[in-house]
DUF7999 domain-containing protein
Amino acid sequence: MNRTGKYTVVKSCNDHGAVTLRDHPRNGTFHVVEYGDSDAEEALADLDAGSVVQLELERTGRRGNAWRVAAAETVESG
């Protein structure tokens, strides 16, 4: 399952590289735990809570709410 859209950073990147996001406009919560490449990881690593980012997300497993960022582009920095 893949998702593409705008997301707001709820909790910025922690020491393990995880980021919590909120989906627009449905307000679903997503936990990013993996990155497709270093560019995607760097794009999210420096964002503060409140920043908006355009992402392509891929589910990392069949269960749970863990996602992998395939592509990222900052829309608005918080």
